[in-house]
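Project standup — Tuesday

K.O.: blocked on the structure for the chain from last sprint. Re-posting the sequence here as requested.
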Amino acid sequence: MKTYNIEDKVAVIVGASSGLGADAARCFAKEGAKLAILARRKEKLDTLKEEILNDTDVIAVSCDVTDEESVKEAIKTVIDHYGKIDILFNNAGIAVRGGVHELSLEDWNKSIETNLTGIYLVSKYVVPHMIEKNYGKIINTSSVNSVIADKLDVFIRHGYNASKAGVLGLTKGMAASYAKYNITVNAIGPGLFESEMTANTLMKSEEFLKAYNMANPTGRPGKRGELNGSILFFASDMSSYVTGQFILVDGGATIV
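H.V.: unblocked you, prediction finished:
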């Protein structure tokens, strides 16, 4: 018997085309969940679908989380195919560099719309189905940068800070409102992991990596797959009495 059993559960992974979302999809597939992988870049989703198709039933659905009609249609596609949604992993996100004195309003809005409003929109169309079934597991991706910031220029992203802190507030609000429907809502806070978002920015800055590794108790960034345990915990019934919580997966970066 699997401890974190999600076998035959229907899981929607948003932002699954690369990075942590794609890793979660691979993990969920091996654990036997039926998957709907969502992102804007359909060609990348199709590649991932082919990779994991032998492990489980999976559909790839194009979805722009900043466009309500796109979200509405994507969730309809999932419901039409599977008839339900048990697990929602809200993981779409972007990081636009810049402080408030240099960010354009367009870039500020882009951060808020993708990282925070996107979670609202997807949840808006998923939660009613979970209420109807009296069951749901929602995991929202926040960040260590919801609780800490950095003075190094390469890491100044005020729109990202604000949007990821907002995710925590939204998570708590949703958790309190939907617990009576047997729906848990929790958040994860990844530290630095190599991903498409960080590969060409933070991971290429020797100054930043040196400072990060010196400050982090583990002395290194996160490795591929090291986020999956926390996601699986929140996605499974092992966390049935855990809601409104935030797990930092950061190698201890936020404790020093």
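K.O.: great, moving the ticket to review. The two ends are 38 Å apart (CA to CA). The chain is about 45% helix and 15% strand.
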